Amino acid sequence: MNYVGRTNISSARLKGLQKDLHLTDLQFDTVLAVLYASYCSAQIPSNMVLIATRPSVYISICIVLWGIVSASTAAAQNFTGILLCRIFIGLPESAFYPGAIYLLSRWYTRKELALRSAIIYAGLLISNAFGSLMAAGILSDMDGNRGIQGWRWLFIIEGSITCFIGFCALYILPDHPHSTRWISPEERHLAQVRLAEDAAEADKDYAEDSAWSGFKQAIFDPKVPIFALMTCSLLLGLSFVNFFPTLTATLGFDTTVSLLLAAPPWIFATVVCLLNAWHCDRSDERFFHIAGPWWAVIIGFIISLATRSTGARYFSMFLMSGGYAGAALVLVWVSNAVPRPPAKRAAAIGIVNGFGNIGTLIGSYAWKAAWSPFYHPSMWISLSAIVFSSFLAFAIRCLLRRENRQLEEDQVKQLSESSRARIEEAAKLEGISFQQALDRKRGFRYLY
């Protein structure tokens, strides 16, 4: 529902939203883009707030708020009204995905995180499939019901569903391992021990590990800016997602059929995403599992650029959507590459996903209606962006390999006070000596 709330405007466009609100093509592109202005800028402070609050309460409140704003979009009468709704929907939505990945990283080890994160990301992918199917049903059956246009019903119904999910999440979501109330003390202890064993340090912030210090540590870690730029370029390359119903409409079918055709590529992408993440966890490898699906997108763009055949272009959409199987693991890689302290990890996830979504904002202007029906200039822009992302991913891989070699040479020669405290805490949790925990720390290596 998080992603449906961001992309349902493209489906609504097919049923008259742009015409009813008297929007020019540039204004519609601006409506798409402005959400990411608030969405991107709020992610870093949101993850910093998450550290100091109960995630179950904070995330649930944000879900309800974006559901309310999404439903309110149905009341928009002009460009100003829908622009304001899009700005305000981006603020609460910014808490969800980076916050969810950070919360998962507080419960699962490095060798478990990829599949769990991919299951969450599968919600994004499947929303593109069933969001289109849901939109097809609402737009065709509800249009004119009680004198309300179908695209307005789309926002009302999907926003209401989101609010209901938000209230349920309040009772379902866990908090941090040491503070979740509905598990036993033994289970809380086990959750903390598992993470301590994984990185040979307790997954815990100490007095000097404030949200602000975590942000400073993250911003000065050279891996984090490279991850952020890589994600920005990647999401520019994958920005076709916001126009997918428009792209399927160029195949020459009516609105309902176009929305139905938008579903199968995303079902395919969901399956590929889960299988790729499962194997990523099993193999402890990151680069090829992340960049490999992007190379399939490049092939998809080349096919679409080379032919005007309807069948070939539709096949290329399967390859394009499959690229999200790699995108699903980017924040997992960030979490693996910036494991401790938690404050730094939370800030790094917020920085990478927040800055990265600027690529989606830029991409809102890359798929111009004037370039329809084949959008060749858009595809060249996207293809170039994904090639650049692949280069940066390879650079991160080389950087992590170098850091592993450095760890082999002089691991733990100098311990900071907070790092020493986390190792002592890990020893205490596992019931081993400090020296044993220190030896385990010497065995820690980054996954690349």
TrEMBL record:
Organism domain of life: Eukaryota
Membrane topology field: Multi-pass membrane protein
GO MF terms, alphabetically ordered: transmembrane transporter activity
Keywords, comma-separated and alphabetical: Membrane, Transmembrane, Transmembrane helix, Transport
Residue span(s) of domain Major facilitator superfamily (MFS) profile: 1-405
Transmembrane segments: 57-75, 81-105, 117-139, 151-173, 224-244, 256-275, 287-306, 312-334, 346-367, 379-400
A Pfam family recorded for this sequence: MFS_1
Record localization: Membrane
GO cellular component: membrane
Protein name per the record: MFS general substrate transporter
Lineage: Eukaryota, Fungi, Dikarya, Basidiomycota, Agaricomycotina
